Amino acid sequence: MSWEKWITQRRNELLANSSDAEKAAFALLQKLGYDVVRQYPIQTGKRTYFADLYIPSLRCIVEIDGGYHYTKQQRKKDTNRSQGMWRLGLHVLRLSNHDARSATAIKAKLRLLQR
After folding, report:
1. CA 78, CA 110: separation in Å to the nearest integer?
2. Strand partners, 39
3. Is 91 within 8 Å of 75 (Cβ atoms)?
4. Partners of 60 in the β-ladder
5. Which string of DSSP letters, residue by residue, matches 51-70?
6. How would you class 109 by CB atoms within 10 Å of its CB: exposed for 0-12, middle for 13-18, buried for 19 or more?
7. Residue 45 per-residue DSSP state
8. φ/ψ bin of 94: left (φ > 0), alpha (ψ from -120 to 50), beta (otherwise)
9. What gap in Å lies between CA 48 and CA 114, rounded to an integer?
10. CA–CA separation, 75 and 71 (whole Å)
11. How many CB atoms lie within 10 A of CB 91?
12. How confident is the model at residue 96, as a pLDDT?
């Protein structure tokens, strides 16, 4: 399978299985006036990640962290993933499932980013 075909197939799988929190954050960001791309592929060295949400105008990745993201092992993986994205000059915003459903929480985090 070609690289491009794999990217398209994997992205479509992720889009089909998006969490309710991811869908909510996507809708709220659009209501706030941002263009947002869901399941945006990012190459960091040898790794390919799919960012939950990407805001091109801010060069910002928004990751929605469900419960399993708070385990020690997953936190380490998430930190490595974020560091790879930072090295590419991208900002990384992490939102809990709860905050992903809150326009107030999203706005507050975006304000910190835009300082």
Report:
1. 20
2. none
3. no
4. 55, 91
5. EEEEEGGGTEEEEEE-GGGG
6. middle
7. T
8. beta
9. 27
10. 6
11. 17
12. 92
Locus of tokens 């996507």:
26
Phi, psi of 33 (to 5 degrees): 95, 10
Q: Mean pLDDT over residues 25-30, rounded?
A: 97
Cβ pair 35, 27 in contact under 8 A: no
Spell out the residues 6+ positions from residue 79 whose beta carbon is closer than 8 angstroms to its own.
none
Q: Name which of 109, 89, 112 is nearest 99 in CA terms.
A: 109
Nearest Cα to Cα of residue 107 among 62, 56, 52: 62
Residue 109's closest CA among 53, 38, 47, 66?
53
Tokens matching residue 14: 């992720």
Whether 74 has a pLDDT exceeding 80, the answer reads no
Region 38-53: mean pLDDT is: 91
